[in-house]
Please model this.
Amino acid sequence: MNLVFLGPPGAGKGTIAQKVMEKYSLPHISTGELFRKAISNGTPLGKEVESILAAGKLVTDDVTIEIVRQRLMESDTCDGFILDGFPRTIFQGEALLKLRPIDHVINFVLEEEEVVKRLSGRRIAKSSGRTYHLIYNPPQLEGIDDETGEPLVQRDDDKEEAILQRLKVYEQQTAPLIEFFRERSLLRDVDAKYSPDRVFKDVVRAIGLE
Ligand code: AMP
Model:
Protein backbone atom coordinates (compact mmCIF):
# COMPACT_ATOMS: atom_id res chain seq x y z
CA MET A 1 0.00 0.00 0.00
CA ASN A 2 1.38 3.39 -1.05
CA LEU A 3 0.61 6.11 1.48
CA VAL A 4 1.21 9.83 1.83
CA PHE A 5 1.00 11.58 5.21
CA LEU A 6 0.06 15.23 4.73
CA GLY A 7 -0.43 17.91 7.37
CA PRO A 8 1.25 20.79 9.16
CA PRO A 9 4.56 20.26 10.95
CA GLY A 10 3.94 18.85 14.43
CA ALA A 11 0.65 17.14 13.55
CA GLY A 12 2.10 13.73 14.42
CA LYS A 13 2.87 12.42 10.93
CA GLY A 14 6.24 11.01 11.94
CA THR A 15 4.95 9.44 15.17
CA ILE A 16 2.07 7.69 13.43
CA ALA A 17 4.24 6.69 10.45
CA GLN A 18 6.59 4.97 12.89
CA LYS A 19 3.68 2.98 14.35
CA VAL A 20 2.31 2.02 10.91
CA MET A 21 5.81 0.96 9.87
CA GLU A 22 6.18 -1.28 12.93
CA LYS A 23 2.77 -2.92 12.55
CA TYR A 24 2.54 -3.28 8.75
CA SER A 25 6.23 -3.38 7.75
CA LEU A 26 5.94 -0.46 5.37
CA PRO A 27 9.10 1.64 5.07
CA HIS A 28 8.75 5.13 6.55
CA ILE A 29 10.26 7.68 4.17
CA SER A 30 10.62 11.13 5.71
CA THR A 31 12.24 13.70 3.43
CA GLY A 32 13.02 15.88 6.46
CA GLU A 33 14.81 12.92 8.04
CA LEU A 34 16.76 12.20 4.82
CA PHE A 35 17.90 15.84 4.79
CA ARG A 36 18.83 15.80 8.50
CA LYS A 37 20.87 12.61 7.98
CA ALA A 38 22.69 14.22 5.03
CA ILE A 39 23.45 17.25 7.21
CA SER A 40 24.80 15.22 10.11
CA ASN A 41 26.91 13.13 7.70
CA GLY A 42 28.31 16.31 6.12
CA THR A 43 27.49 15.19 2.56
CA PRO A 44 27.33 17.69 -0.35
CA LEU A 45 23.51 17.47 -0.18
CA GLY A 46 23.69 18.17 3.55
CA LYS A 47 25.85 21.26 2.98
CA GLU A 48 23.44 22.48 0.30
CA VAL A 49 20.30 22.20 2.45
CA GLU A 50 21.54 22.97 5.97
CA SER A 51 20.72 26.69 6.05
CA ILE A 52 17.38 26.10 4.31
CA LEU A 53 16.24 23.67 7.01
CA ALA A 54 17.49 25.91 9.82
CA ALA A 55 15.44 28.79 8.40
CA GLY A 56 12.30 26.67 8.08
CA LYS A 57 12.12 27.17 4.29
CA LEU A 58 11.61 24.52 1.62
CA VAL A 59 14.40 22.75 -0.23
CA THR A 60 13.95 23.18 -4.00
CA ASP A 61 11.51 20.89 -5.78
CA ASP A 62 14.21 19.49 -8.08
CA VAL A 63 16.50 18.40 -5.25
CA THR A 64 13.65 16.99 -3.17
CA ILE A 65 12.00 15.07 -6.00
CA GLU A 66 15.34 13.55 -6.95
CA ILE A 67 16.02 12.16 -3.45
CA VAL A 68 12.50 10.71 -3.32
CA ARG A 69 12.87 9.22 -6.80
CA GLN A 70 16.10 7.50 -5.72
CA ARG A 71 14.61 6.27 -2.45
CA LEU A 72 11.57 4.81 -4.24
CA MET A 73 13.90 2.79 -6.47
CA GLU A 74 15.06 0.76 -3.45
CA SER A 75 13.58 -2.72 -3.25
CA ASP A 76 12.01 -2.32 0.22
CA THR A 77 9.39 0.00 -1.33
CA CYS A 78 8.05 -2.67 -3.75
CA ASP A 79 5.09 -3.59 -1.55
CA GLY A 80 4.40 -0.08 -0.38
CA PHE A 81 5.71 2.86 1.62
CA ILE A 82 4.71 5.78 3.81
CA LEU A 83 5.81 9.18 2.55
CA ASP A 84 6.01 11.64 5.44
CA GLY A 85 6.58 15.30 4.56
CA PHE A 86 6.51 14.72 0.81
CA PRO A 87 4.99 16.15 -1.33
CA ARG A 88 4.96 19.68 0.06
CA THR A 89 4.16 21.62 -3.12
CA ILE A 90 1.73 21.05 -6.00
CA PHE A 91 4.72 20.54 -8.29
CA GLN A 92 6.00 17.74 -6.03
CA GLY A 93 2.49 16.25 -5.91
CA GLU A 94 2.34 16.07 -9.69
CA ALA A 95 5.82 14.57 -9.84
CA LEU A 96 4.92 11.93 -7.26
CA LEU A 97 1.86 10.75 -9.17
CA LYS A 98 4.10 10.22 -12.19
CA LEU A 99 6.55 8.17 -10.10
CA ARG A 100 4.14 5.85 -8.28
CA PRO A 101 0.38 5.35 -7.90
CA ILE A 102 -0.88 6.45 -4.47
CA ASP A 103 -3.62 4.59 -2.56
CA HIS A 104 -4.40 7.03 0.22
CA VAL A 105 -3.34 10.49 1.38
CA ILE A 106 -3.95 10.94 5.10
CA ASN A 107 -4.61 14.57 5.94
CA PHE A 108 -3.64 15.18 9.59
CA VAL A 109 -5.94 18.02 10.66
CA LEU A 110 -4.69 20.16 13.57
CA GLU A 111 -5.23 23.81 14.48
CA GLU A 112 -2.32 26.22 14.53
CA GLU A 113 -2.30 26.89 18.28
CA GLU A 114 -1.88 23.17 18.97
CA VAL A 115 0.84 22.89 16.29
CA VAL A 116 2.94 25.54 18.04
CA LYS A 117 2.52 23.81 21.44
CA ARG A 118 3.56 20.47 20.00
CA LEU A 119 6.56 21.73 18.07
CA SER A 120 8.01 23.75 20.91
CA GLY A 121 7.88 20.71 23.25
CA ARG A 122 9.21 18.23 20.71
CA ARG A 123 12.53 16.49 21.31
CA ILE A 124 14.26 13.94 19.07
CA ALA A 125 16.86 11.19 19.19
CA LYS A 126 19.31 12.18 16.48
CA SER A 127 20.44 8.71 15.41
CA SER A 128 16.95 7.34 14.68
CA GLY A 129 14.79 10.44 14.31
CA ARG A 130 12.46 9.02 17.00
CA THR A 131 10.35 11.81 18.44
CA TYR A 132 9.07 12.60 21.91
CA HIS A 133 7.18 15.45 23.53
CA LEU A 134 8.05 16.92 26.93
CA ILE A 135 4.41 16.64 28.07
CA TYR A 136 2.38 14.55 25.60
CA ASN A 137 4.82 11.75 24.85
CA PRO A 138 7.72 11.86 27.35
CA PRO A 139 10.54 9.30 27.36
CA GLN A 140 10.79 6.85 30.28
CA LEU A 141 13.82 8.75 31.62
CA GLU A 142 13.81 12.52 31.25
CA GLY A 143 15.91 13.71 28.30
CA ILE A 144 17.01 10.19 27.26
CA ASP A 145 15.98 8.03 24.27
CA ASP A 146 14.13 4.89 25.44
CA GLU A 147 15.94 2.58 23.04
CA THR A 148 19.50 3.84 22.61
CA GLY A 149 19.99 5.83 25.84
CA GLU A 150 21.30 8.81 23.87
CA PRO A 151 20.43 12.36 25.03
CA LEU A 152 17.41 13.91 23.30
CA VAL A 153 17.83 17.20 21.47
CA GLN A 154 15.61 19.96 20.11
CA ARG A 155 15.63 20.43 16.32
CA ASP A 156 16.94 23.86 15.31
CA ASP A 157 13.79 24.39 13.28
CA ASP A 158 11.57 23.65 16.31
CA LYS A 159 12.69 26.99 17.83
CA GLU A 160 10.11 29.75 17.78
CA GLU A 161 11.19 31.84 14.79
CA ALA A 162 11.55 28.83 12.51
CA ILE A 163 8.21 27.40 13.68
CA LEU A 164 6.37 30.53 12.54
CA GLN A 165 8.19 30.44 9.21
CA ARG A 166 7.34 26.75 8.70
CA LEU A 167 3.68 27.39 9.39
CA LYS A 168 3.65 30.21 6.85
CA VAL A 169 5.30 27.95 4.28
CA TYR A 170 2.78 25.20 5.07
CA GLU A 171 -0.23 27.48 4.53
CA GLN A 172 1.13 29.00 1.32
CA GLN A 173 2.77 26.04 -0.40
CA THR A 174 1.57 22.78 1.13
CA ALA A 175 -2.07 23.32 2.13
CA PRO A 176 -3.14 23.61 -1.57
CA LEU A 177 -2.28 19.89 -1.84
CA ILE A 178 -5.36 19.13 0.28
CA GLU A 179 -7.64 20.13 -2.61
CA PHE A 180 -5.26 18.63 -5.16
CA PHE A 181 -5.61 15.18 -3.56
CA ARG A 182 -9.27 15.61 -2.64
CA GLU A 183 -10.10 16.23 -6.31
CA ARG A 184 -8.40 12.93 -7.11
CA SER A 185 -10.46 11.11 -4.42
CA LEU A 186 -7.32 10.21 -2.49
CA LEU A 187 -7.76 12.35 0.62
CA ARG A 188 -8.72 10.85 4.02
CA ASP A 189 -9.10 13.45 6.80
CA VAL A 190 -8.00 12.38 10.29
CA ASP A 191 -8.42 14.56 13.37
CA ALA A 192 -4.89 14.76 14.78
CA LYS A 193 -5.73 16.37 18.12
CA TYR A 194 -6.12 13.03 19.95
CA SER A 195 -3.49 10.75 21.54
CA PRO A 196 -1.07 8.88 19.23
CA ASP A 197 -2.89 5.57 19.94
CA ARG A 198 -6.27 7.02 18.98
CA VAL A 199 -4.92 8.74 15.85
CA PHE A 200 -3.15 5.51 14.85
CA LYS A 201 -6.46 3.62 15.08
CA ASP A 202 -8.25 6.28 13.05
CA VAL A 203 -5.54 6.16 10.36
CA VAL A 204 -5.71 2.35 10.17
CA ARG A 205 -9.48 2.57 9.79
CA ALA A 206 -9.23 5.31 7.15
CA ILE A 207 -6.97 3.18 4.96
CA GLY A 208 -9.04 0.05 5.45
CA LEU A 209 -6.38 -2.04 7.25
CA GLU A 210 -8.51 -2.77 10.33
P1 AMP B 1 10.14 17.74 8.41
O1 AMP B 1 11.00 16.85 9.19
O2 AMP B 1 9.17 17.02 7.51
O3 AMP B 1 9.43 18.79 9.26
O4 AMP B 1 11.09 18.56 7.40
C1 AMP B 1 12.11 19.40 7.91
C2 AMP B 1 12.58 20.36 6.83
O5 AMP B 1 13.12 19.62 5.71
C3 AMP B 1 11.49 21.25 6.22
O6 AMP B 1 11.20 22.38 7.01
C4 AMP B 1 12.16 21.62 4.88
O7 AMP B 1 13.18 22.57 5.08
C5 AMP B 1 12.82 20.29 4.49
N1 AMP B 1 11.89 19.44 3.74
C6 AMP B 1 11.34 18.26 4.13
N2 AMP B 1 10.54 17.74 3.20
C7 AMP B 1 10.54 18.63 2.18
C8 AMP B 1 9.87 18.69 0.93
N3 AMP B 1 9.00 17.73 0.54
N4 AMP B 1 10.12 19.76 0.12
C9 AMP B 1 10.98 20.72 0.48
N5 AMP B 1 11.62 20.75 1.67
C10 AMP B 1 11.41 19.71 2.51
User: Anything to note?
Assistant: The longest strand covers residues 104-109. The radius of gyration is 16 Å.
